[in-house]
Amino acid sequence: MSKMIVVGMADYKVGRAPDKLMTAGLGSCIGICVYDPSTQIGGMAHIMLPSSLESLQGNPAKYADTCLAMMLEEMLKLGVMRSRLKAKMAGGSQMFSFGNKAPLLKIGERNAQAVEQELKKVGVPLLVYDVGGSFGRTITFDIQSGDLHVRTINHGEKVI
Amino acid sequence: MEISAIRLEAFKEIGNIGSGHAATSLSKLLQARIDMSVPKVWLVPLEKLNEALGEYDTVQVALYLKVEGDAPGKAIFVLPTESARVIAQKLLALPERPDIFEDEMAQSALQEVGNILVSSFVIALSKFSGVFLQPSVPAMAIDMVGAMIDGVLLEEGMIDDDVLIIDTKLSGVKEVEGKFFFIPNKGSLDKLLGVFGI
């Protein structure tokens, strides 16, 4: 039977088909899904910040680089082949704006760029993404089909 | 991060004073008796935040103000959409509850409520402690509560593994409920409590 594996903030989980992976309420955070279609093993990470190099402290699953590395290691142990891995991502929005003042850090945008770069570094192709805007996303990843379902409040639903 | 029981207790007291003032402001605005209590002061690890907030993807209204000054932090007032509709209806004396996703008047009224509520909390806190604090311009969002909280937490681009939260509960007017969170930045807690020698 298929079960739903819930991924918390600054957290990652790995599962096998027919299980699904889910993370709720992504704002400027990013949900990264990495999967191997042939072994049907997939992982999802809910990262908060672009890089551990800027402020390496505390939980390494907070950062794009360290979290992705940890998740890949676990997936490789389970028997995925690195060359067959594919990735999808969603999130990275800017939830609040203060009048005309541009936000100082645009953390959502930087998170998306960082994930893209990290995936390039480890050689995993990013097939598709749904990032940016000023709204939250809840995502569900079907390891079996490789479908990433993205739900929003007032900006529709889609499968990428 | 470790925090002693006495500090949590002191912080709860600070929360009570701040929310007392905020409740008075809101009572005046709505011309109805509003109570605010502080049920909990929590030090919450990030991955347990959903236990403090409830389901991450329920739709709520969030009013967010940055607190600047000598002990900076973030103050957020979160309320269910139905409560927000009731407040907006009362304030604007509308015959029906407005659609807060579409109605710009209602949104701006709510933003003002948030501003008054959060500002009076911060000003009370500042007066009581003698630490200079100043509320900034408010911002509002209506979205998944988890997404709004992560947007607030990450605005400065860094974050501790734990978040200290003063959780206040709003009550008094039927069908109106809300939660108020004050999240001090790193170091701010020491400044605020240092004043009292704790």
TrEMBL record, chain A:
Sorted UniProt keywords: Chemotaxis, Hydrolase
For the keyword Hydrolase, the answer is yes
Q: Which family does it belong to?
A: Belongs to the CheD family.
Q: Which Gene3D superfamilies match?
A: 3.30.1330.200
Q: What class of enzyme is it?
A: hydrolase
| Annotated catalysed reactions | L-glutaminyl-[protein] + H2O = L-glutamyl-[protein] + NH4(+)
Q: What is the protein's given name?
A: Probable chemoreceptor glutamine deamidase CheD
Q: Write out the GO biological process terms.
A: chemotaxis
Task: Tell me which Pfam families the record gives.
Answer: CheD (PF03975)
- Function in brief: Probably deamidates glutamine residues to glutamate on methyl-accepting chemotaxis receptors (MCPs), playing an important role in chemotaxis.
User: From which domain of life does this come?
Assistant: Bacteria
Give the molecular function GO annotations: protein-glutamine glutaminase activity
EC number assigned by the record: 3.5.1.44
TrEMBL record, chain B:
List keywords of the entry alphabetically: Chemotaxis, Hydrolase
- Gene Ontology MF annotations: hydrolase activity
Q: Which InterPro entries is this protein grouped with?
A: CheC (IPR007597), CheC-like_sf (IPR028976), CheZ_family_phosphatases (IPR050992)
Please state what the protein is called.
Chemotaxis protein CheC
Organism expressing this protein natively: Dehalobacter restrictus
What's an example Gene Ontology biological process for this entry? chemotaxis
Q: Does the keyword Metal-binding apply?
A: no
Every CheC-like protein domain range = 12-41, 105-139
Q: Which domain of life is it from?
A: Bacteria
